Every structure is written in structure tokens, then in C-alpha cells.
Amino acid sequence: MKFVETIIKRPSLIIVLFAILTIGGLFSYRMLSYELLPEFSTPVITITTVYPGAAPSEVETEISRKIEDAVSGLDNLDDVKANSFENASVVVVQFKAGTDIDLALQDAQREIDKMVSDLPDDAEQPSLSKISPSDQPIMQLLATSTLPNEVFYQQVEDKYLPVLQQIKGVADITMVGGDKREIRINVNDDKLNYYGLSLLQVSQAINQANLDFPTGKVKSTTENMTLRLAGKFASMDDIRKLVIATPANGSPIRVGDVANVTDGITEPTSISRFNGQNGIGLFIKKQSDANAVEISKLVQEKLAVVEKENAKDKVNFAIAYDSSVFTLASVEAVTHDLILAVGLVALVMLLFLHSLRNAFIVMVSVPASLISAFLFMYVMGYSLNLMTLLALSLVIGILVDDSIVVLENIQRHLEMGKDRWRATLDGVSEIGFAAVAITLVIVVVFVPITFVDAVIADLLRQFSLTVAFATLVSLLVSFTLTPWLTSNLAKLEHLNPKNPFQAFLLWFEKGLTSLTAGYHSSLAWVLSHKLAFTGILGAIFVFTGWVMSLGIIGSEFVAQGDQGKFLLTVKLDKSVSLQQNNLTSRAIENYLRKKPEVQTIFANVGGASTGVNSTGQGSTNRTELTVQLADAAERPGQKPTEQYMMDVRKELEDRFPAIEFGSSVIGIVNSGTAPIEIFLSGNDVNQNLAAAQELANRISRTPGANDVNVSVESGNPEVRVEIDREKMAKLGLNIQTVGGTLQNAFAGNDDSKFRDNGEDYDIRVMLDAFDRKNPDDVKSINFFSPSANRSVRLAEFANVSLSNGPSLLERKNRRSSVTVTANTLGTGSGTLTAVIQADLAKNPLPSGVTVSWGGDAKNQSEGFGSLGIAMLAGLMLVYFIMVLLYDSFVYPFVVLFSIPVAVIGALLALALSSSNIGIFAMLGMLMLIGLVVKNAILIVDFANQQKADGVPFRQAILHAGEERLRPILMTTIAMVIGMIPIATASGAGAEWKNSLAWVLIGGLTSSMVLTIYLVPMMYYIVDRIQEKWTNFRSKSKTTEVIEEVAVS
Q1: For the purposes of burial, counting CB atoms within 10 Å of the CB of 226, is it exposed (0-12), middle (13-18) or buried (19 or more)?
Q2: Which residues form the domain of 521?
Q3: Could you report the average pLDDT of every consecutive run of 10 residues in the chain (1048 residues)?
Q4: What is residue 612's DSSP assignment?
Q5: How far apart are CA 603 and CA 583, in angstroms?
């Protein structure tokens, strides 16, 4: 090769090139940020609309259906799901994979703007937002102080929150819990009745009296002055003394005559607590393109300053959760695996190459490729995350592959007596095309990944491109640095048996020689007993199929990942108040805190969930406890988080039998939905609900199912008011007046504000708590009747009764729907899905109910389908590369026989390691296509060269197998050994790495053992067929010539 000869004679070019790559790579490494995962988005938007005081049925009719109709014509729409809660509508719009979500959001906003005038006047403006995994809080804080609760709340909201929100990359901070100051006007219903007033009159009087008016200007000949009417309340007494009405023959009736005016706090709707201490919870979310580790660092710096400045008030911010801790632990774990892999591969090189000199020549490709990869990652905008570092860890054995093949061939030429310069040129020229093919088949299998449209396509894309680039650099090294170093440093090593280490190498060489001789004999036997070997191979395939049929290998979309954290949900009876819930939740917390394995507990009592798909709806009877455990090594028996969680849950269920508990492990990627999500749709809501409850009961009896829930629950207690319109009209009242009064009475009216020291506080007018405790209080609500000129009670023109109604109404693709969800326990989500699907096929639900799948089932179907297509495309590209290499359409098929035998080892490795088939195991299968064909290429390429030199094809294939065994063993063992640290890792994020590494180890091992027999056998068969075909064609032509001569 002229190129290699030029490099050897003039190495300055390559030295400068790799100097630039090294300097650029090291500089880039310093610039790369740390992230747990690459940024990836889901093609989903949510449309949230608040409709105060509306029941779910009203929300569905007036809000959800109209929004459904508006967005149903959007391009690339996958499905639309509408959830109608009390007071709010949440419509989730999912688009097809690969959709530009920013453009889709703009289109949806335009459609909503067109129809917003059709919504009720008292409904708030619909809010549109994208859903992204980055919507999960990256930090959870609890703020505490010795200041009065309402004062501290105001300080957090007005002083500390803006400081944190100014940090670059912070998207949103949600406050949960705490006591917010509020001016409370608690109206006594009996006094209203005594004075003949209504609650609406009180609210209107306060709102109309608490106003500032700019009323114009006072102009004189010398100056202009603004005229402003200062009508705002200046004190509590101003409110108390405000006149509501003045009877014709009596004293003015003031607010203080009918209400108790206090400077108080809002009625709590949620309580936050960290390790038993109440406070104000702060949930920090980052912008989609921001770095969580950097934000965490800046937040902690700001908090330290705030704490120092407010030390006298003992202001403290406890960090309940910080995602950067797990991120850095994951990065550290993968980096440790990478370093260990490099060390192990170096030992393998030393074992096979006999000297530090030769091992150094090969190992140069590792730092050269890795450092260059950092430059590539920086240019591509990647970060140091679990996927890119995993790619660099797995690629260690691959990086030395080309250099091993080149150096081993150069060594073979040195043994022929050639000098270093000639041996280098001849060795590289002889193996050059094979080395290029080996690298290209590894690279091209990743090309289709760049076109995959799936939920985690961005994760796979960064992994694949990082592997491909590093591998291409290793090819460049093998044709530049390796030949140059070899021409200057390589020499034949003569081992000294008196040296202990060299004596060990001699022993290893003797074993390798014996192995080679045994392989030669066994290969000769295989070539002579092809049917027998085919039978052995068939038996291995049957055994693998039998193992698969046992169900040992489960399936899942993505392994959860063990962060040592789980979510415990506490659900009490629907009638339970927040205070009762708080007492019960504290008792549960106290029980958990006594366990030495529990490090922290963050309690969110009554507040809305903070997950990705949170609807912002809290409930007084529900609590979320986020439990952080100590490291697995510190737990009894080193229990995994899932097992420990279930043991604790069982204890709690025994200790608190009246409480409904739920639990789920908080993994690396939380989609916001349960792994099992089944939508039951139909026109009959009651039929949907009955079918959902039946299905939920069946799933709950299925092993591996946990926390089976039905989204729409009946039996939600409500007080129903049915108006007699005729009576109402006779009293001179209307629906707006009645509804407004009821809303003021039980939700309060906070339209008016009280200004104090430059801050505005709500003035809330509502009935006193004593007058709104039970349904009879609703009947007693007073209204002023204009026609009767007196106070009337609600019971005089309405029927008030207790009933049950759903707290949620669902629709999917414009049909009524109910969702059944379940978590998994000890089994893969794909495995559980298959069991449920089999049960539904055997025992179908009633006609009229349509079943569709979401959650992991949908993601797995799309992800596996995309990767399956990518595998097929990768296989075709590998075939085309080999067609170019061999200038033949036949020999590539011989090489491809190495792939099926790799699948055997991959599946058996998954079974032995108790791993599931998921996206990362499938990615390992894709990698195997490129990795395992290299052994076959080495054998076929050498056999072709032997045949070209006139060696009979049987002898050529025997010689090829014997000569190529050593580089096959070296490269495969190097890759396998390099992946062992990743396969056996147990640190942060290990669950994602393990299955991928086990697939590669198993596939490479089985392929190494079986390919060296199967490929020569197939090569032999193909050559025999070609020989017979050639002879047949020759005879046919000879016969034709004879016949032509005879005729002539």
C-alpha cells in the first residue's frame, strides 16, 4: 500500500494529525458537561384548562370535547386523550415518532386560539406545554425557618424564589405546602339571615370599595398634577367598618357586623415534610437544554448565600433529592468500568504478544481513539452521559481489533525472516482490505440507527455514533500509527524459560499451539463429517429454543435502573380531611424513619403529583412519600430496592390495614405512566367501567402484577344541588346569582387584594368554617330575593342531596374511555403484557369495548419494530460491504452464517444472567452483526488468498482456519474481557449496561467457538458447488463444440 509506505517514510503528517486530534480531544473533554442521559423528547403536548367550580361532567362537555375537536385535525396525530377532572381539563395530544414537536405545538396553539371564544366565560385560558423527561424535578428542597410561617412563606415567594429562578437553565420552581398570608373574611350565615343580606352582597361591596382610580389631571397655569382616588383598604379596620347596606329605618350594616375579619393564612391544601420536619417544598425543574449537574451546583451556591444572610432567622434549605448525585455516580461507575476494561485488555495483549513493546504498539489505538472521540462528542453537542460513556467502555476491545490483526500479520512476516520495514509493508498490504472490511461492517450496522424513529432514538443515536467514530479512528490508527511504530519498534521476541513471567508465556504458547493443532484436526473432521456437525449445531439451536420456551428470559422496554429510591402512595377514604391524612401519614413516616436502611423521606401530603404527566390535581386523602434508601451494600442481604420496597409495603399493610398503599421504584427514566397501561374505549361509559373493573381483577391475580388501578372511580361523594327553576324565577333569582353565591360560600372569593408594605395579599370572602361542614349547611345558604324583598334559603327553591359521582372522566380519540394501569414486580413489563394479551385473547371483553395499549407495551412495540428494521438494514449493508470486498455475491453469504450462531450465545447469556430482552439487549444484537462477521472475514479472506496462490480449496480452508485462529482468539477475547466489567457492574445505572454487555459476551463467545467450524464448512460446500457448476458448464461447452464440429 503506497499510503502506508508514505506514512513510514514521512511520519510527520500522521504525527501532526494525531497531535491535533489529541489536543482537540483533551480540550473538548474539559468542555463536555455531565448528564445522566442525552436530552430526548417525546412527541406529546398537554392542553390544560382550569374551569373553577365545575364538575367532571361539565368540564367534559364544555371544555374537553371542544378542545378534542379543535386538535383532532393536526398533522401526524397519533392519538388524543382527554381527562376531565373537577375544576380542570387536561388533554394529552400524542404525535407520531419523529414529529417536530415545536412545530406541532405552534399548530395546536393556532387551533386553540380559534376556538377559545367557544369556552365558558369563567374558564381560564388553555395552557399548552410540551411533555419531556426533563419535566421531572431535578431537585427537591425543603425550606424551614424560625420566622412565623406566613412571614417565611412570603419571604420564600418574594425573595428566595426569584434568586433561584434567575439561575441559568432553571425552567420552573413549584412551591408545595407552607402557610400563605391571607386576609380572611369569615361570614356568619345566621347574621346574614338576621340582617336580610346575602353572601354575594358582601363580596360585591368589598370588591367595589377596594379600588384605586386614576381620575384625570388637575391643570393650572403653572403645573399639571395627576388626580388619583385612593380607595384601597389601608387596615383591617377599614374592612370591618365598610358599609354593606343601610336600611331605611336603621343603622348602617358593616362588614364587622356579619363577619369576622382576620389577618390569617390560606386554608391548607397540601403539606410538605422532610424527615419529619414541616416546611415549604420547592420542586426545581430545568430547561430542556440545560445541564442538571451545573444547575445543582449553582443552586447550592445560592442557597448557601441565602442561609448565611438569614442566619439570625435560621433559614435552612434541606436537599431532599438531587439528581446530580446519581448522575455523577453513574458517570463515575462507567468511567471505572472503562479504566478496568483498558487494563484487562492490556493484560490480554501482553499475554498474546509476549512483550510490553508489542502490547504498547497495539494499546496506542485506545487513547488515540478515545481522546479523538471526545472531540467528536464536543462537535456534535453531546455530553458525558450514561450512553456516550457506555459506548466508549464497550468499544475498548473493538479499538484494538484492527491493530491486533495488522500487528499479528506483521509478526508473521517477521517470522519469515523479513526486516521490520518489509514485514510491515507486506503485512499491512496482505491484510489491509480485510482490516478495512472488519471495521466497516462494525460501523455500517449503526448507520440505520440514525434514521430510527422511536421514543429513545436520541439515546441510541448518541451511543451508535460515538461507537462508530471511535472505531473509524481505530482503523486510521491501524494503518498509520501501528505500521509506523512497528517499523521502528517491532522485533521477534525470544522467550527465556528462566524468567518466571516468560516461562508462563511459554507455557501459554504451548497450550495455544496444542489448541491450534487440535483445532486443525477437529476442523478436518468437520469437513469430512458435515452432516454430523450440522446435527450437532441443530441440537444446539433446539436446546436454545427450549430454554426460551421456559420463559427464563423476560422482555421489557427499558430496565428501570436502581437509584435506591421508591415512591410510596398512601390512599385513605375519600371523605378523609387533610388534617386526618396528615396525622396518618406522619405515623407512617415515623415507622419508616426507624428503619436503618431509610435515609430520607419527603412527604407530599394532599399535594399534586410532580411526575411527567402530572395533571396538577391533588387530593386531601392522598399522600406521596418519596423514600431514599442507603446503598444496597448497607441493606440486609443487599436487597434490591424493589424487594425492599415490597417487604416494607407488606409490613405497612399489616400495621395499617384500613389504608390502601401503592408503591413503585423510581428508575432512571420515568415516563409518568405505569409500565402496563390499557385503554378500554366505547360509547357506553358504564360498560367501559364494568369491563375495566373486570380486567383489573383479572390482572391483579396475574403473577408479576402490582398496584392494579382503574382510572375512573365511582363512588366519589358529592353534594348535588338541583334547582327548581320556576320557584327560583318567582323569587327573582337566576343561575348566575345562585352559582356565584355557592362558589363564594364554599370556595371563597379572592378577587380583591390587600396591599401591605408593597405586597398584595388575597382578601378571601367565604362562609365561616362552622357554616360549611355538612350538607344541611348547604340548604341553609341565604339569598336575597328581590321579588319577596327578604332573605330566602337555598332549600326553598332547590333540592340538596348526597350522591356519588366520578372524580375523573376520560376520553380517548373522541370516545369515552377508562384506563387500567399496573406496575410490575419481579418480571419484565413485556412478559406481563404478553400474559395479559393471551388472557384477553382467550377471554375477550364484551363487544363494544375496544382495547388499546399504552405504556411500555406501545413503546416496546415501536422500539423493537424500529430496531428490527435497523437490524435488517444493517445486515444488508454488511452484505454489500462484503460483496465489494470479495467481488462476489456468494462468499458474503458464507460470512453471514456467523450471525445465527452468535444469537445462540446471546440468548443463553441473557438466560444465565437472569436478564430481560429490552432495547439495550436488542442494541447488543445489532452490534453483534458487525462484530461476529469479522472472524468469518479473516478466515474467508485468507482462504481466498491461498486459493489465488494455487492451493487446493480443502487445504486452503484448513490452512486459513489454522493461521487465522490466533488473531480470532486475540480480538474476541480482548472484546469479551473488556466487556466483563460492564456485564458484572452493580453501581449506578448498571441495569442498562448489564444486558447489553451480556448479549455481546455470549454472542462473541458462541460465534468464536462455532464460526471457526461453521464458516469453513460452508466455504467448503460453496466451493464444491461452484467447482461442480464450473465443471458442468465446461462439459456443456465442450459438448457444444464437438456437435458444431460434427455438423460442419
Answers
A1: exposed
A2: 512-550+888-1042
A3: 75 88 92 81 86 83 92 90 88 86 90 90 86 78 90 90 91 86 90 87 89 77 77 89 84 91 86 87 85 90 92 90 83 81 83 80 86 92 86 82 80 81 82 80 85 74 89 87 82 75 85 91 92 93 89 77 83 85 92 91 79 57 89 75 87 90 77 80 88 91 86 74 89 87 86 86 88 84 86 89 80 90 82 89 89 84 82 88 82 88 92 85 87 86 84 87 87 87 76 85 91 90 79 65 58
A4: T
A5: 12
Side-chain-facing half-sphere of 567: CA atoms under 13 Å: 20
Q: Are 646 and 728 members of one domain?
A: no
**Grid cell listed for 449:** 440507527
Where are the strands (E) in 630-739, listed by range? 660-665, 676-681, 705-710, 716-723
Name the pairing type of β-strands 759-767 and 181-187: parallel
- Give per-residue burial for 566-589: e unless 16+ CB within 10 Å, then b: bbbbbbbebebebeebbebbbebb
DSSP-H helix ranges across 249-291: 255-258
The C-alpha atoms of residue 198 and residue 192 are separated, in whole angstroms, by 6
Would you say 924 and 994 are in contact if contact means Cβ atoms under 8 Å apart? no
Q: Residue 340 in contact with residue 154, Cβ under 8 Å?
A: no
In angstroms, the CA 51 to CA 850 distance is: 30
Separation of first and last alpha carbons in the chain: 53
- Residue type at 582? N
Based on the structure, what is the number of domains in the chain? 5
Contact 923, 482 (CB under 8 A): no
Tell me: do 540 and 571 sit in the same domain: no
- Strand partners of residue 214: 228
Q: Specify whether the CB–CB gap between 644 and 545 falls below 8 A.
A: no
Residues 459 and 516 in one domain: no
C-alpha cell at 682: 366505547
729's grid cell: 324565577
- Together in a domain, 536 and 569: no
Same-domain pairing of 14 and 106:
no
Torsion of CA 428, 429, 430, 433, to 10 degrees: 90
